[in-house]
Amino acid sequence: MATIRETLRQTHGNLESVGIPDARLESEVMVMNVMRMPRQDLFSHQEDGVNAPQERELAQIVERRLKREPLAYILAYKEFYGVNLLVNSDVLIPRPETETMVEHALFMALMGMETTELVIADVGTGTGAIAINLAIHLPAARIYAIDATDAVLDVASHNIRAHNVADRIKLAKGDLLEPLPEPVDLIVANLPYIPTSRIPTLQPEIQWEPSAALDGGDDGLDLIRRLMSQAPDKLKENGIILLELDPEQVPAVEELSRQLFPEATTSIEQDLAHLDRVFVINRAGEEGY
Fold first, then answer.
1. CATH 1.10.10, domain 4-67, yes or no
2. Is the whole model's pTM more than 0.85, yes or no?
3. What is the pLDDT of residues 10-30, one digit of tens each?
4. CA-to-CA dists, residue 56 to 7, 15, 63, 245, angstroms
5. CATH of region 90-282, choose from 1.25.40.20, 3.30.310.180, 3.40.50.150, 3.30.43.10
């Protein structure tokens, strides 16, 4: 019977041999899940044995991962901003850079936006990652979580119920902002923004994810343009829009913002890698958020 130490080493080696990024971390996550133990116990029980059923389960996980299927799809969950979310192949896997969107939305809501009842739209909600975290940290807010298909909304619905925020989040199906029944204070949107031609060049794991959640058209801005063109009637006069972008897209979105919201101020928030990631449109034209 192999020990946890030996199993970790072998799993790490298998993943590393095919060039999987973060092979050490992923091997630890795989063994954690098979052993049903938290990460800290993994290292304090390194001489414990791994039994035959656990070895078989791990072998199945590794086999799928060696085909470059994302680990989040294999394990059916992904951690995002401190909460675990169900994921499947119908939804984009939440990314760490999107946590910047949550942090800035919370900062503005708690420090900058003066309203007794904050109304928020999370457009392209996917797993519900952004909406759920905003609902957890802003218990007085009302949130619309919008997506285009039933399959995606089923995943979001499961996650919303799992985190006990269904009383604050209303799911809506439709085209971007069109399903909104009222103007909102804050629009947060992590829409597809990868140019079509770039998708085949991205790492193998991304090819497993739904193209509809990645493909933003020729320049990556098709959906973002449509959302911004819908926004004047769906955003309150003192409202704010947060858009996740590729850094190269900032000038084009800034120009579009000037056309649609000439009174607004704009700014950029950087992600954890210090890349321009979240484009902020403040319709009230106030500085300082």
1. no
2. yes
3. 999 999 999 999 999 999 999
4. 12, 17, 10, 42
5. 3.40.50.150
